[in-house]
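Slack export, channel: ligand-projects

TW: morning all. Re-posting the request from yesterday since it got buried. We need the structure predicted with the small molecule present, not the apo form. The ligand is flavin-adenine dinucleotide; the SMILES is in the block with the sequence. No rush, but it would help planning for next week.
GE: picking it up
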Amino acid sequence: MNPSGDDVDVAVIGAGNIGLAVAYYLVRKHGVSRIALVDPRDPMSFTSAQSGENYRNWWPHPVMTAFTDDSIGLMEEIARESGNRIAMTRRGYALATRRDDPADLIEDLYRGYAGQGEKSIRVHKGAGPHSTYRPAFSAAWEDAPEGVDVLCDRALIRRTFPTFAEDVGTVLHIRRAGSISGQQLGQYMLEAVRSAGGRLIRGEVVGIEKVAPFVLSIAAPDAARQVRADRVVNAAGPFFADVARLLGEDLPVRCVYQQKISFEDHEGAVPRNLPFTIDLDGQVLDWTEEERAILAEDPAAARLTQFIAGGIHCRPDGAEGGKWIKLGWAFNEHAGDPHGPEPADDHFPDIVLRAASRLQPALRAYVGRLPRGARHYGGYYTMTKENWPLIGPTATPGAFVAGALSGFGTMAACTTGLICADRIMETDTAPYASRLGLERYRDPAFMAELTGLQSKGVL
Ligand SMILES: Cc1cc2nc3c(=O)[nH]c(=O)nc-3n(C[C@H](O)[C@H](O)[C@H](O)COP(=O)(O)OP(=O)(O)OC[C@H]3O[C@@H](n4cnc5c(N)ncnc54)[C@H](O)[C@@H]3O)c2cc1C
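GE: finished. pasting the full token output, ligand included:
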């Protein structure tokens, strides 16, 4: 290897959660320190800055369950060694439906926790005050239960979630789930990479000579430069497909814009110890006749008068003594263009509040009256059709991808980084790693299984 300053062992394109995690595990596990992280933006300032920062091991397929479960284990390691600098909490995900016997959801649980279902899933039916169910009073991840509690007893649901609407018939409480500070995770990784000798180079990769050692042409405000690298990793988030094209490759991804709001809950509508709650049921929003007529006339908004699938989520944000809450609903299904202006929709705050107040009626106080200082923001879910990531080698020898992390890149960053680093170093890695790489498209039976899944786990 050439020892000159702009020659490195690995160049990682993109310093979001994913690029940083790849660099971190190259350093931590494999002792590779001649790394360049290249990005025109500040680290962690693009999609990774918009994350809701939630994590869960709840997925409709056992590979995705294992993938996120392993990532949670790696986040726990970092929480332990850093004095919980990444602010990991574990109150779980509470998934609510009005149905009394959601057999399909329970079937999904058994499929997702394959082999572990019998010991992981606890159904609480008519247990009344003697239920063995432990609610999520504490945020501490160390002593939270594992598995899933399925609450089928309406009295138990009322007692545990008094702010939920009375028509809720079942709550699935996923226990290995909660929140972290994705920003702190990224910062922690960046510090480790830098102190091992890795470098951050400001600039946009605009060209790559296709044969290793790769020569990356970098456009920067001060001066253009070149970096030579034995290996290159594409971790460019929403620009994943653009960077792949620099190597003459196509990636089967699209970018879908999703939004969130956060604000100070002065009314105390959301209890501070509430898990991340999701209303699983779809709904037709309750507009007035006049509002409905106005929306129906606008082709871009007419869809808002029709039935929209569930997945509205809400959680308290920050300290228990604080007031901020976050709400989101990833109902957009249309691909957008991350090169263009951000397509934030002015209707979104109203839409998500109306929708969320069906499960938590006290939120209705904010419809049309969002408190001052409220934030409305969004970013792109870069996703494959099956909503699985792409991690591993590409057709170009020495070039790797780590992307298409959709709405789960904060929670899955650690395993993504570890698997990508292992594959770069050609060592043993997670047994399911090939399912997360481009190799899976060579297995039509497996792809048919994924496309046939009723739920793709988009939240
Ligand atoms: C609204 C929203 C809510 C979300 N909520 C959650 C959640 O609760 N939990 C969760 O786990 N995940 C969540 N996610 C998903 C998560 O945020 C993403 O999957 C993750 O941040 C993707 O990280 P990344 O590093 O791939 O992309 P990014 O953070 O976008 O980083 C990519 C970087 O690549 C750089 N780059 C691009 N092109 C080039 C180039 N040519 N040269 C150099 N650099 C380049 C960019 O400047 C950028 O900094 C959410 C996403 C959104 C949008």
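GE: first-pass observations. The chain has two domains: 7-53+182-252+386-451, 93-177+255-383. The mean pLDDT is 94.
TW: perfect, thank you
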